[in-house]
Design brief:
single chain; seven-stranded mixed sheet; eight-stranded mixed sheet; alpha+beta; 469 residues; 15 strands
């Protein structure tokens, strides 16, 4: 394998091999289970893996399961990008994947009794694979722990229900099970819209809780068929990301049982709001105190200021992780509360970083830039890296934005994938924290996607140019 430079970044402390007793107990408590889906989460945040009979479960815990390394060099279509060096160049070789402790659970939406188990990839039992997003996050958490800090975090996910019988190309809002009509508009926080899809939404929450996902609030968003589900805060950042990614899986599978499709695409409708994924994050010290909590109301602690400074200073450099697809950049519009500059404010939803103004003990940063198409593990890793960079270097944030941030002159964030990838590729800080080999693979995959996209001629080009000249 040509990637060698990142191996020293990982240690046995980043490994987390589970006890086989977990599998033995599960099988004893769930004798009706027939199969187990083994899930590996790729760089795009897409679930891949294989389904095995339940008698293979013990082997997965004791010996691991072999899966291709090229999974971490795939584009959004699931095709290996050979330029990463993770495919044919190394003979399409496998690596060993071991279970994530605590991830073995039933899939309540399945008609047959099927369980699921999340995997992580290793080069050997003590060397995590550099391209596995869970391993990249494990490394950030080890570094946070060395600083005496523990992140507390929670995600908010937006999604659209769409008509499963509509066009494969352009989505349509679903037909209401109550009115029998296709909605043309909606009211944000409307209880009526929640009532129309009550059976589906209730089943999503029930299925999430059966999988130990702490799904909390559901709200109707500002577009037809759009909803948001919030997850509860946890002091386990890996679990927080697991919750976000597995909730997407639950929402899709339960919706399919109700004959709906779901999209987490960043901008499925040109004239409606996009799908955002906000992350709330605070930090605890070794005594369990929130280091962002002010001593006096209205003040910012030094740690909070430096965390803001790091997040804002590096935001252009990690934007490609928050907005990893070509469509991601279509979300950015002041009409839909998507910030387009590295700004912050207290109780200000027009800024990129918002400090909610509820209770001092819960003081936290809400990062409002990412779309729901982002990989939550990479997103969290980038944020923690930026926070550590800010704290270590005592980076002061710019002035707080009061009022409408879109009216304040600021250097805009990159507004397209190509520029964002260039910023990420050139970032020495993010290479230091996330790994230079990972950055190279990520950028290569996304650049090849962009290259393929730009080779296609669109319908609009024919409309404009075919007979114009």
């Amino acid at each position: 394998m040509r990637y060698q430079t990142d191996r020293e970044m990982f240690t046995s402390a980043d490994a987390n091999l589970p006890d086989v007793e977990e599998a033995i107990r599960f099988l004893a408590q769930n004798p009706d289970v027939e199969f187990v889906d083994l899930l590996l989460l790729d760089m795009n945040g897409i679930v891949r893996g294989k389904r095995v009979e339940k008698d293979k479960l013990i082997k997965a815990y004791e010996q691991g399961i072999a899966l291709p390394i090229s999974i971490y060099g795939m584009n959004i279509k699931g095709t290996p990008v050979e330029e990463t060096g993770l495919g044919l160049e190394i003979g399409e070789s496998d690596a060993i994947c071991f279970p994530v402790a605590g991830s073995l659970t039933r899939q309540p939406w399945q008609k047959r009794s099927i369980a699921q188990l999340t995997l992580e990839m290793y080069e050997n039992p003590e060397t995590p694979f550099f391209g596995d997003p869970r391993m990249i996050l494990r490394r950030q958490l080890r570094q946070m722990k060395a600083r005496g800090l523990t992140p507390v975090s929670a995600f908010e996910l937006e999604f659209y229900l769409i008509d499963a019988k509509g066009s494969d190309k352009a989505p349509l809002p679903p037909i209401s099970p109550v009115t029998g009509k296709r909605p043309e508009n909606t009211q944000v926080y409307s209880l009526d819209d929640l009532d129309e899809y009550a059976d589906l939404l209730t089943e999503i929450i029930d299925a999430a809780r059966e999988q130990n996902l702490p799904a909390d609030t559901i709200v109707a968003e500002s577009a037809p068929g759009q909803f948001e589900i919030n997850l509860k805060h946890t002091d386990d950042a890996l679990a927080s990301c697991d919750h976000a990614l597995m909730l997407r899986r639950v929402i899709k599978q339960v919706a399919h049982n109700h004959e709906y499709d779901v999209t987490f695409m960043a901008k499925p409708y040109a004239d409606q709001a996009g799908n955002g994924m906000h992350l709330h994050i605070s930090l605890l010290d070794d005594d369990g105190n929130n280091v962002f909590e002010p001593k006096q109301l209205g003040e910012l602690t030094e740690t909070l200021k430096y965390a803001l400074g790091g997040l804002l200073a590096l935001m252009p450099q990690y934007l490609a992780i928050l907005c990893p697809n070509i469509n991601s950049y279509r979300r950015f519009s002041p009409d839909f509360y998507v910030p387009n500059a590295a700004t912050w404010g207290v109780e200000n939803r027009t800024t990129a970083l918002r400090i909610p103004g509820d209770v001092p003990q819960a003081t936290r940063i809400e990062h409002r830039v990412a779309g729901t198409d982002a990989n939550p593990y990479l997103m969290m890793s980038a944020f923690l890296a930026a926070i550590m960079h800010g704290i270590d270097n005592k980076i002061e944030p710019p002035a707080e934005i009061v009022g409408n941030a879109y009216d304040v002159p600021n250097t805009p964030l990159p507004n397209n994938l190509r520029d964002a990838l260039r910023e990420l590729s050139d970032s020495d800080v993010l290479r230091q924290y996330l790994g230079t080999d990972f950055i190279d693979v990520f950028v290569t995959c996304k650049e090849k996607e962009l290259e393929e996209f730009e080779q296609h001629i669109t319908t609009l080009e024919y409309d404009w140019y075919l007979r114009t000249f």
